[in-house]
Design goal:
This protein is of the alpha+beta class. It has a single domain, classed as Arc Repressor Mutant, subunit A (Orthogonal Bundle), CATH 1.10.10. It is built from 4 helices and 3 strands, in the order αβααββα. It has helices spanning 5-22, 27-34, 43-49, 64-73; strands at residues 25-26, 53-56, 59-62. Strands 1-3-2 form a 3-stranded antiparallel beta sheet. Strand 2 and strand 3 form a beta hairpin. Helix 1 (5-22) packs across helix 3 and helix 1 (5-22) packs across helix 4. The protein starts with a helix and ends with a helix.
Amino acid sequence: MIDTPSDILVPLVCDLLEWLDREPRTHAEVIDGWRTSCPRLPVWEEATDRGLVARKGTRVEVTPRGRSFLAEQRP
């Protein structure tokens, strides 16, 4: 079985969600820490496309959907 790009990103997306959930982060902090120049590892894009994170003003927060996803992946 071949992993899809989304499957490969799951551990990294979980890392992002855990990092965001530890303390409030600004959008600038998130982009600086999680942007990538490698189009094969779009962690930030994957998390936003799945609705796991959302911008709330200048902050980025884990959504309820993101918390559920994280609980499923890392019980």
